[in-house]
Write a structure and sequence with these properties.
The complex is a heterodimer of chains A (about 240) and B (about 220).
Chain A (H helix, E strand, L loop, with lengths): L18 H34 L3 H16 L2 H22 L10 H26 L4 H9 L3 H31 L11 H12 L2 H30 L4
Helix pairs in contact in A: 1-2, 1-4, 1-6, 1-7, 2-4, 3-4, 4-6, 6-8, 7-8
Chain B lengths: L2 H40 L4 H16 L2 H11 L4 H5 L3 H4 L2 H26 L3 H9 L4 H31 L11 H12 L2 H30 L3
Classes of the chains: A mainly alpha (about 240), B mainly alpha (about 220).
Chain lengths: ~240, ~220
């Protein structure tokens, strides 16, 4: 029995189709991407200061992080955490006296490994944004007698956000697309769900094309949102 | 740290690096041709041709590379008509499927890089060529292309590095490239950190070589 090439019934919600499964898989992709982006922000909060200080050792640590993560394939990083994650957690648990087997949830492994990658890119974005702020403003602050703390939080960071938004939009797109790679760990997001559906219906062309369409929709709407944000932050200029 | 494993697995990983490099160079070669064609199409005055080129690059840049490989490797085989043509002898090989996917993907990014390079060429250069009585063809090949290449070098260098990392996805369609072999060794020895250090080190040194090669070429091409 041959199937018609575009059988929309395959996308029905409920038990007969894959519509609801794919819908929840899309939500999972978004959840992983947002969590990863957030973890990435935490990493960039730690590493951006390291990259712009004058201390050579701290500088080296910051550069090491961004160079290694951006120079090594994402898939290799994911394998490192997928295979090494449980071992690392068990090692720590052993120190605290727990001697059993611990398996880390695929969501945590995925979000953490994509988050580390995303963090390296956002660190570079924030560094670039901070460095493009005019040095004259620092001198102006000094003349006004404002301290370093006010200079960082009231002058640099608000401007940095405005400058960083267009590039953060790129980081978000990269992060969103990278989430497809964590399907190798078995987390049921768009790619994994399509793989399952393609396997059980023997219609890979339809399901992978539909997955591509889902990603296109996600990237299209996130671009719209970032454009809005950009306009919002640029309204004073 | 298991240093023995690191030393023992190095030869296997280095052999696999050759597969990675082969995938990379072939994809870049075809990708450059595709990119050049689509960038010229994008600048065409014909609305239909330029829209087609725009949609091509939008789709390939807006979806993950993994989906593209899967559509080509798992999806195209489903079309019965294709199975009867001569194309099938290429499409049934995971190696060529990976190269097709990589070439189209890097072609889409390259077309954007070249398009912006073509668009930033000062109109004066083209007018000067016209003033000298050069034909359109000579202006394109001898003025526009050399300037575009020079301008797009830094961005293209980044694209090469992205593609180098992208070739790791070949391991998802059963190819034993550097990442594929690394994963195999990890899953048989359960020593992810050691293997990551060796395989990651190889990738990093390749990135380093590409980065410096582009920098060197940039310097060499600089005329002022």
């Amino acid at each position: 029995m041959s199937q018609p090439p575009y059988n929309m019934g395959l996308l029905a919600f409920g038990d007969n189709g894959w519509g609801d499964e794919l819908f929840f898989a899309t939500l999972m992709t978004l959840a992983v991407a947002i969590t990863a982006m957030f973890i990435g922000f935490i990493f960039s909060l730690i590493f951006t200061p390291l990259k712009i200080t004058n201390n050579k050792i701290l500088n080296f640590i910051g550069n090491f992080y961004t160079t290694v993560i951006r120079g090594v394939p994402e898939l290799l990083v994911i394998y490192l955490f997928f295979f090494g994650g449980s071992a690392a957690v068990m090692f720590v648990a052993k120190i605290f006296g727990y001697d059993g087997y611990i398996e880390i949830n695929a969501f945590i492994t995925g979000a953490f490994s994509i988050g580390i990658i995303s963090g390296a890119y956002s660190t570079e974005v924030f560094r670039g944004a901070i460095q493009s702020i005019d040095k004259g403003q620092f001198e102006a602050c000094k003349v006004l007698g404002l301290n370093k703390y006010i200079y960082s939080f009231k002058i640099v960071i608000p401007q940095m956000l405005r400058l960083a938004i267009p590039n953060l939009s790129n980081v978000w797109q990269i992060t969103l697309k990278d989430t497809s790679l964590i399907s190798v760990t078995g987390l049921v997001e768009i790619m994994r769900q399509s793989y399952i559906a393609a396997g059980s219906t023997r219609d890979p062309l339809f399901f992978y094309s539909f997955a591509a369409l889902l990603y296109l929709i996600l990237t299209f709407f996130s671009m719209k949102i970032f454009n809005k944000l950009e306009q919002n932050y640029n309204r004073g200029f | 740290m298991d240093f023995d494993l690191m030393i023992n697995s190095s030869p296997k990983l280095l052999v696999a690096t050759l597969v990675t490099l082969k995938l990379l160079s072939l994809s870049l070669f075809f990708g450059l041709i595709i990119g050049l064609i689509f960038s010229v199409m994008r600048l065409s005055k014909n609305k239909f041709i330029s829209t087609f080129s725009y949609v091509f690059s939008y789709v390939f840049r807006g979806t993950p590379l993994l989906v593209q490989i899967f559509i080509i490797y798992f999806g195209l085989g489903q079309i019965e008509y294709l199975r009867s043509t001569i194309l099938w002898s290429i499409l049934k090989e995971p190696y060529w499927c990976a190269i097709i996917a990589f070439s189209l993907n890097t072609g889409a990014y390259t077309s954007e890089i070249l398009r912006s390079a073509f668009q930033t060429i000062k109109i004066g250069f083209i007018e000067a060529g016209k003033g000298l009585g050069l034909s359109k063809k000579i202006i394109f090949y001898k003025i526009q292309i050399p300037i575009a290449i020079k301008q797009s070098l830094p961005a293209y260098g980044n694209e090469i590095i992205l593609m180098l990392k992208g070739t790791s996805l070949a391991s998802t369609v059963t190819l034993m490239d550097l990442t594929g072999v690394a994963k195999y060794i990890i899953s048989t020895t359960f020593k992810p950190i050691e293997v990551f250090i060796v395989a990651g080190g190889i990738y990093l040194s390749l990135t380093f070589i590409v980065h410096n090669f582009i920098k060197f070429t940039e310097k060499k091409l600089k005329t002022h």
